[in-house]
Specification:
This protein has 166 residues and is an alpha+beta fold. It contains 4 helices and 6 strands, in the order H-H-E-E-E-H-E-E-E-H.
Length: 166
């Protein structure tokens, strides 16, 4: 695990998430452009956690998910709702954690080194889909309930404070 920008010594993932959550309004101010905040958030997550090989957003246009700001290797540019882990999370309307992507039916392999994934949906104020936050790891079983709970809180910050109309 990377010490990232938050800790000089060894820190647990929970501690890193707590630090990010406590600073989120300073790191991603409401006054900044949403696209800039999405980009900085992906950089923040990738820097803070060595287990993350790819961090990004797919934004919903009413029909498909399209690649938004990200950190990592070149990615798939669009995903159908219900396809792959991102499309499944969007369709189900809930976070999806996949410990081994090779065992996930219909997994879309943008990066052949990716082994596990977590995807968290984001919503507009009217509860319609805005997009998804997608994190990949080159490690099996890299994501847990700790990640899910923390990422859902951080996504809630986006929903409440940064997504226009919310």
């Amino acid at each position: 695990m990377s010490q990232g920008m938050f800790f000089s010594g060894e820190a647990t993932e929970g501690q890193i998430y707590e630090e990010i959550t406590s600073r989120i309004s300073y790191i991603l101010p409401k006054e900044d452009n949403l696209l800039s905040n999405l980009a900085n958030f992906t950089a923040l997550l990738k820097e803070a956690f060595g287990k993350i090989s790819w961090a990004g957003f797919y934004l919903y246009d009413g029909k498909r998910l399209y690649l938004g700001p990200f950190q990592g290797k070149i990615a798939c540019t669009n995903i159908e709702i219900g396809k792959g882990v991102c499309g499944t999370a969007a369709e189900l309307g809930k976070t999806v954690i996949v410990g081994d992507v090779e065992k996930f039916p219909g997994h879309i392999a943008c990066d052949p080194n990716s082994r596990s994934e977590i995807v968290v949906p984001l919503y507009n104020s009217d509860k319609s889909l805005y997009g998804v936050l997608d994190l990949d790891s080159n490690l099996l079983n890299a994501f847990s309930e700790i990640d899910q709970n923390a990422l859902e809180k951080l996504v809630n910050y986006f929903e409440q404070n940064l997504i226009p109309g919310n």
